[in-house]
Specification:
The chain is an all-alpha fold and 214 residues long. Helix content is 73%, strand content 0%. The chain has one domain.
Length: 214
């Protein structure tokens, strides 16, 4: 028999895999990558070397979209934890290698940030800080709480199968909501950069002017 409550929980519960929140973040990241590609193309058409940096940013955003949509980081948690025996804030193992990727991305992105106008730079820094704080910071807190809620001799696979700690009912929605807001802010920052800073075409929605009107 069809159970609508199960379907509703699977789609709208932010703690579930392949939920609306996961789909929204993946699609927004993909669209942000598209805008980044348009910015790279504009720089290339103007003969500016910045197109290489924006191309790197496009690949990074596209990779994030694929990772979010396929839940690749979650799939890495168990093999990383079991191989490296991570614990504490790194008990959910994927955060450890991804932390190094964050540092690498910050280092590689410094030339891009320096090339931006202050307002655009601040917008992107705020969006990136919120995304990392929500995606990794909250996950580290959840990892610590998860490890403390299970016996010391329990394997990571058994710990995950045992169910979520009660505190996750609050932390997981905060994490997913933070990610969605951060991606939306990043998309807005790139759209404003394309239209205001680079003089890209603007889209205006409204009633069509009558014939002969200015």
């Amino acid at each position: 028999m069809f159970n609508s409550s199960v379907l509703t929980r699977a789609v709208f519960d932010l703690g579930e895999e392949n939920s609306f929140g996961n789909f929204f973040s993946a699609m927004m990241l993909a669209f942000t990558a598209l805008i980044s590609a348009l910015i790279a193309y504009r720089h290339q058409s103007q003969g500016a070397r910045l197109w290489l940096i924006w191309s790197f940013a496009t690949l990074a955003l596209a990779g994030m979209a694929i990772d979010e949509g396929a839940m690749l980081h979650d799939r890495l948690s168990r093999p990383i934890q079991e191989r490296l025996q991570t614990s504490g804030v790194f008990y959910i193992g994927w955060t450890l290698p991804y932390l190094f990727l964050v540092f690498a991305a910050v280092f590689a992105g410094l030339p891009l940030l320096r090339s931006l106008r202050p307002r655009t730079r601040i917008r992107l820094i705020v969006a990136a800080a919120l995304y990392v704080g929500a995606a990794m910071g909250m996950e580290m807190i959840e990892a610590l709480l998860l490890q403390r809620s299970v016996p010391e001799d329990m394997t990571f696979r058994a710990a995950i199968a045992s169910g979520d700690p009660p505190s996750w009912a609050i932390l997981v929605p905060m994490e997913e909501t933070g990610e969605m807001i951060a991606v939306a802010l990043a998309l807005r920052a790139l759209l404003l950069h394309l239209t205001d800073d680079l003089g890209g075409a603007r889209l205006t929605f409204g009633a069509a002017a009558p014939d002969g009107a200015p």
